[in-house]
Fold LacI family transcriptional regulator.
Amino acid sequence: MEHITIKDIAKALNLSTSTVSRALRGSHEINPETKRLVMEYAEKFNYQPNPIALSLKENKSRSIGVIVPEIDNPFFSQAINGIEDIAYNKGYQVVIFQSHESYEREVINTQHITSRRVDGLLISLSGQTTNVEHLKNLHDKGLPIVLFDRISDEIDTHKVISDNFEGSFNGTEHLIKTGRKRIAHIAASPYLSITKERVKGYLAALEKYNIPVDESLLKYCNYGLQDIEFVIDQLFSNETPPDAIFTASDRLALGCLSTLQKRSIKIPEDIALIGFTNLKVASLLAPSLSTIVQPALDMGKRSAALLFDLIENTSKLPKSYQTFKLYTELIVRNSSVVKRGED
């Protein structure tokens, strides 16, 4: 079946092409009944805007850039799904770059973004990024930018995050309420905003229940299995090893699970384990992994919607930008509760 055009819709509804075009864009100049007729006809016959024609007419590339640390991280792949869903409905293409947790590659990615003349940028910072001048320069030149998940306070723009503090607090509190006293926290890069917030939540829960902070139980770790094994060995070389581990991500938790089982440490009998993200495999593990839900798909959709709002209203930029916190939720499974029944 051939794709219909604006001319086809105009001919079928006895309207001018300019009226149809404005109706499809949601222009306030078109009365609601005409908009309804046009949108219903467009949906019925699966109208899709021609991105090349639109880009020529509007002097836009009809594309947005997305920079994430790693696409093979399930959290970011879900976020990208949400971004692409919104972009597709807007008639935009999505150009995806990976920083691989490297500041240098992130800077190079932003240079490629500029050369492709994208209309806006969505970015989650790398684990090495402490200087965001490369982003501030683009933002100051007028490129709409929205930060998500891993953010910086040095750029005045919209940001979308999970409630990392609350999620971390609730996860640590759950372990305390199940009787754990020596709770280790394995965090990601110390430079990341998500790391700082999750560490704060962990410490706040300990403080609430008058559990002294033991600095030897707070570890920063990369995602490689060798790095995780090294941290686990450090924790268990302690005179009093931990009886629970709360990790800053499910990816770290998976490495911990594998390492602990290799060392014949029983979960949750000897040590409880809880993650942060809720990967699809979390419920399928043995034992199933307790975790904090991080709404990746919703984060992608919200971030993209905010970016398109900036792109489409560049002449009316908001007087103040906002940081949007999305919900987190604790899911208790077998890795953190002794003799827990089936989920």
Remarks:
- The mean pLDDT is 91.
